[in-house]
Amino acid sequence: MGIAGIQPLAPGFTRCMVRPQPGDLEKVALTALTVRGEILFATEGRAGNRRLSVTMPSGCVGELTVDRRETLALTPWPSGREPGLRRYILSPGSTTDVTLKYT
Question: In angstroms, rounded to a whole number, what is the distance separating the alpha carbons of residues 86 and 98?
Answer without folding.
Answer: 14
